[in-house]
Amino acid sequence: MAKRTIRTDGDDVLRKVCKPVTKITPRTEELIDDMFETMYDSNGVGLAAPQVGILKRIVVIDVMDGNPLVLINPEIIEEEGEQTGPEGCLSLPGLEGEVTRPERVVCKAFDRNMDEITVEGEGLLARCICHELDHLDGILYKDKVNDGLHRVQPVEPEDDDMIDEDEEE
Questions:
Q1: CA pair distance 164, 21, nearest whole angstrom
Q2: CA 80 distance to own-chain centroid
């Protein structure tokens, strides 16, 4: 396994429509493993193949529920309800925006063995499935934001500003 370079906004590959996968090859297996490693290394919950420069309909997702997913040639066959919340993307580092997505989705896909599967997701999983499947059609979440993008900076306290837990102000 190897970490791959994540393509960022402005790279043409992120705006292209991906091609269906017709069979699993050793290179496909390696791509899937590399995608998981890249996603975990970047603290993401989902990654689509075009984000690492490969125009194939492959998505990996792990919302830390003990069920990492590989979705090949995925398609949403049912959606219900609505949720609005913040989204970010490994291809738009440091940014986020409010996006409205379905509260629940049902997705039909193939797993890494090309066995057909159906995945039902609610909440974060539904949001992640929708977000990653958009990537396969050249759509970025910034195309769907309600309130524009805004910069998110990680806040790390400086040593001088840290308060000892035993001290009271």
A1: 55
A2: 20
41 three-state secondary structure? helix
48, 19 Cβ separation under 8 angstroms = no
pLDDT tens figures, 55-74: 999 999 999 988 999 999 99
Instruction: State the pLDDT at residue 1.
Output: 78
**Other C-beta atoms within 10 Å of 110: how many?**
19
Task: Considering the candidates 98, 120, 132, 168, report the single residue annotated as catalytic.
Answer: 132
Q: What is the pLDDT of residue 130?
A: 98
Based on the residue annotation, tell me whether 103 is a catalytic residue of this protein.
no
Query: Is this structure's pTM higher than 0.85?
Result: yes
* CB-based burial, 41-59: b 16+ in 10 Å, e otherwise: eeebbbbbbbbbebebbbb
Q: Residue holding tokens 């039902």?
A: 120
Q: Which residues of the chain have pLDDT under 70?
A: 153-169
Q: Cα 123–51–105 angle (5° rounding)? A: 25
Token output for 83:
């949720």
Both tokens of 110, joined, read 């193939």
Q: pLDDT at position 153, please?
A: 63
* Cα separation, 18 vs 4, whole angstroms: 18
